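Q: I'm teaching a short session on how sequence maps to structure, and I want students to see two examples side by side rather than one. Could you give me a first protein with its sequence written out and its structure tokens following it? Keep the formatting plain so it prints cleanly on a handout.
A: Of course. Example one:
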Amino acid sequence: MKVQVFSMEGCGGCEVVKNALRASGIKFEELDFFQNDELVNKYQVRSLPTTVIHLLESHDVVTVGGARPQDIQKIKAIVKGEAH
């Protein structure tokens, strides 16, 4: 599984998501929204933060936008294989 978090400097919600993932021991790649145009377009990132989760077994990609508690719970559940 590969987890990518699209963010930008000064984005409070982005920090919330990244800190929550770190606290949960979830490894992720941080991608700057403005420096990754190709990936932003590929995954249709329209708001920040956006977390993209690559499920290696099925080759599916799950996108979760936002930093609300339910967004973070959804990310954690997907990474732990509980939902998607």
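Q: Perfect. Now a second example for contrast.
A: Example two:
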Amino acid sequence: MLDKLQAYTISEATYLFYKGDIKHMAVNIRLTRGGSKKKPFYRIVVADSRFKRDGRFIEIVGHFNPKTRPESITLDVDRIKEWTRNGGQLTPAVKKLIKDSGKSI
């Protein structure tokens, strides 16, 4: 069975081919927390859903700082669109940040 299984990387996401069927990895676009105690800072990252919240990630696609007034949100919309086209799932928190920033995906 493994001799028929081929894995390779396209656009930093792994696709597995077995008997001509494409199976995508579970990729999430989510927040990771940074900063110190009571001073949170979040990165918007593309990560495999099996990784820990603040663990490994594939790519950083934005930042969110809730402590500044008004809150600062930076997004790389083109990269987020590309990841969602390739099967990436947005978490509810990231969907809300995109909506609040006035951008559409």
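Q: What should students look for in example two?
A: Point them to this: The radius of gyration is 16 Å. Also worth mentioning: The chain is about 20% helix and 45% strand.
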